[in-house]
Amino acid sequence: MNPSSHSEAAGIFHNAEAALRAGDRKAALSGVLMALALAPQHPIYRRAALNILGVTSGYKSLPTPVLDALRHCTTDAALDLQSLSLVLKTLFEADGRFAAMEATLNGSHLDIESAISSGAWDWFFGEPLLFGVLSRATLIGVRFEQALTKLRRHVRVSHSVLATKHSDFIAALALQLNAARFPWITASEEQTPAPTALIRALYQPLLAFTDAEAIELPEILQAARQTMLERQERARALPTLTTIDDRISQLVQSQYEGYPYPPWDALGDVAPAPFAAFVAARFPGIAVQSKPPELLSAGCGTGRGAVMLALTFPEASITALDLSRASLAYAALKAEQHGASNITFGVGDILNVSALAQKFDLIESAGVLHHMADPAAGLRALAAALKPNGLMRIALYSERGRTAVIAARHVIWEHNIPDTDDGVRTARQILIGLPKDDPARAVVDTPEFFTLDGLHDLIFNVQELRFTPSSLKVLLFEAGLEFLGFDLTEPNIKQKFVDAFPGDASARDLDKWDAFEHNNPGIFSEMYQFWCARSR
Fold first, then answer.
1. Per-residue pLDDT tens over the stretch 460-497
2. Can you tell me the distance from the alpha carbon of 288 to that of 23, in angstroms, rounded to the nearest whole number?
3. For the chain, how big is the Rg over CA atoms in Å?
4. 10 Å Cβ neighbour count for 315?
C-alpha cells in the first residue's frame, strides 16, 4: 500500500470513530469499511470493521474492494469471525443467485446434482466468507440453514459429486454441525449410515469416531476430533476447589455439563496493561496494593472472560471457578491455545467461595448470579472475598432486554417440550413457524438460536432471574456494595443519560437509570454490565 493510501485510510478511520462516538452508526460503518478497503492488512481496521458489522445491517450489497478485504479477514486467526455471519446472511439473502439456488433445492435430486455438476453454484461453495463462518463461527439465518440442510440430505442420498468437487466445503460444514451440536437434524438422521467416510462427518459428532473405524477425515476435522479428546482428558484432571451442595447449583451444574456454553474462538482486541494503572485510570482514588494482583473469574464458564483477564493483566494471578467440569475443560484448552498461563481452573460454587481462603483485587462474574436461587446470597459471598480496595465487574440479565426470551420460554412451557436434545430441536421448529410479529419469534434472529447449546441456554435454562436498575440498587445495598457505573455498548448512551438527567453527571443513580431504560428499552442488549466496590 502506498503512503498516500495509508494516510487517506487513517483520516477516514478517524472520522468514522468520531461518527460512532456521536451515535451516527451509518456514517461510522461507511468510514470503517472504506478504511479497510484502502488498507486491508491493517489489524485495527479489520477488528473495527468486524465489530461494527456485527451489530449493523440494512446493506444489500458491499463494494468489491470491501468484500475482498473481508475475505482476507478469514485468514486472520486472531479475529473473531462471528460478525461475518451477519454479513453473509444480509448479502446472500439479497442475492438473486441464492434465491435461484433455493428454488432448485426444492426440486428433484437430479436438478440439484445437475446444478452442482455444471458449476452453477461454484460461487457459493467457493466463497471464502462462507468457508470462514462455517469453520470458525456460527452460521445464522433460517434460509441459510434450510438451504444447507437440503444440500446435506442431497449428498447423503445421491453420492453427489459435491463430496469430491468441493470437499473443503463439506469439511467446513461438518465443523459447523459438530460445533453447533447438530441443531438442524433429528436423532434418527444422526444415526443413519452415510455413503462415505467423509460424508459421515455431516451426521455424527466427531467424538463418535473411534480408531477402530479408521475413518480418513480431512485435516481440519482430524484437528477438531483431537481437540475434543483433549477436552475430555482435561476435564478429568481438573481440581475441585469447593463443595457444591446447593440444590439449584447442582441443577445448573448438571445443565452445563451437558450443554457447555458459549463456544468461542478468537478474542479480538487485547491490550496488556498494568492492573494498578488500569484501576487508577478508570477509578481514581482506588489504590491497588497487591503484587501480583489476585483476580477471580467467578463462574467462568467456557473461559473467554478469564482468558481476557489473563492476557490483559499478564502480571496477575487468576483463579477461574465454575460449576461445570465440561465448561472448565473447554476454558483450560482455550487458555493454553491463547498463551494464558496465569490462570488456575477449578470446580466450585460461588456460594462456597470462602473455601478458597483468599481475598481478591478484582472479581468478575458475568452472566452467573441470575442463575442462582438467591443472587443476593451469591453476591454477598463474592463481596466477602474482596480485598478492602477490591473491585467487582458483574453482568446480569435485564428484565426489559429479555422480552423475546421470556416469550419464547412461555412457548416452550405451553407446548410441554421436554428438556432434551430432540426437545431443543423441536422447539426450534416451533419458533421458526411462529408469525413474524410474535414476540417469541425474535429469538430466531439471535446467534444462540443456531446452536443446540446456545438455544438450550437461552430458553431451557433451569434457573433464570432478571433485574431492573432499581432492583440492582437493592441487590447491591444488601451486599454492602457501591455502584460505580455501567459498561455501555454504545458510546453516546451515557451522554444521552446525562442530557436526560443533568443533575447526575456521574451517571450512578440507578433509579434514574431505571427511568432511562424504561424510555429506551433496548439499550442494555439483554444484560447490564457494571462495576461495583465495597461501600465507603
1. 999 999 999 999 999 999 999 999 999 987 778 888 99
2. 35
3. 24
4. 13
Strands of the sheet containing 343-347, edge to edge, are 343-347, 317-322, 294-298, 360-366, 386-397, 527-534, 481-486
Q: Write the single-letter amino acid at 474.
A: V
Output DSSP code: residue 321: E
For residue 347, what are the β-bridge partners? 240, 322
Give the per-residue pLDDT at 192. 44
- Which residues are within 8 A (CB) of 208 and not within 5 positions of it... i.e. 6 or more apart? none
> Each residue of 253-288: pLDDT tens digit?
999 998 988 888 888 778 899 999 999 999 988 887
Task: Using alpha carbons, select from 512, 501, 510, 506 the residue that is nearest to residue 528.
Answer: 510
Q: Which amino acid is at 66?
A: V
Cell 410441554 -> residue: 416
Cell numbers describing residue 86: 451477519
Find the distance separating the first CA and the last CA of the chain, reported in whole Å: 55
DSSP state of 286: P
> In terms of pTM, does the model score above 0.90?
no
Report the alpha-carbon distance of residue 361 to residue 316 in Å, rounded: 10
**pLDDT tens, 411-464?**
999 999 999 988 999 999 999 999 999 999 999 988 899 999 999 999 999 999
Please, which residues bridge with residue 297 across strands?
Answer: 320, 364
Taking the CA of residue 335 as centre, how many other CA atoms within 13 Å lie in the half-sphere pointing to its CB? Answer: 28
AA identity, residue 469: P
Q: To which residue does cell 436526560 refer?
A: 500
Of 142, 201, 208, residue with least CA distance to 172: 201
Quote the CA–CA distance of 76 and 81 in Å, as a whole number. Answer: 9
Q: Identify whether the C-beta of residue 41 lies closer than 8 Å to the C-beta of residue 71.
A: no
